[in-house]
Design goal:
Elements (H helix, E strand, L loop, with lengths): L14 H9 L4 H7 L5 E2 H7 L5 H13 L3 E8 L2 E7 L1 H19 L3
Antiparallel strand pairs: 1-3, 2-3
Length: 109
């Protein structure tokens, strides 16, 4: 039996770290925030995120889709047009983002 003072070491990141790895990426929170009202076409989303390159927006959307937070819908194939919308899991992340926004404004960060 190990001593009571022995520190248990984890090889996996804690839930907060795992969540930050998903939501903490550059532009990730902003992408989700802009999808909160409903489906948005890729080019419209890229315009709303003025400082992000289209490549960055595409990368973030693919990551969010892989995590099940965003769904991609092909609207037409010629020319290609796609829209993105949040899944229920993505909607649930909005609570976290709203609290982060409030915390940031309250603390002048």
């Amino acid at each position: 039996m190990p001593p009571a003072t022995e520190i248990k070491r984890c090889t996996e990141p804690c839930p907060i770290e795992r969540g930050m790895r998903v939501l903490g990426g550059k532009w990730t929170g902003s992408v989700l925030w802009h999808l909160k009202a409903g489906p948005v076409r890729f080019n419209d989303l890229a315009r709303q995120l003025g400082g992000a390159s289209k490549k960055m927006v595409d990368q973030r959307l693919k990551e969010l889709e892989a995590h099940g937070l965003v769904r991609r819908q092909v609207l037409s194939t010629r020319p290609i047009a796609v829209a993105y919308q949040m899944t229920p899991a993505g909607q649930s992340a909005l609570d976290v983002l709203e609290r982060l926004r409030e915390w940031t404004e309250t603390n002048g960060i």
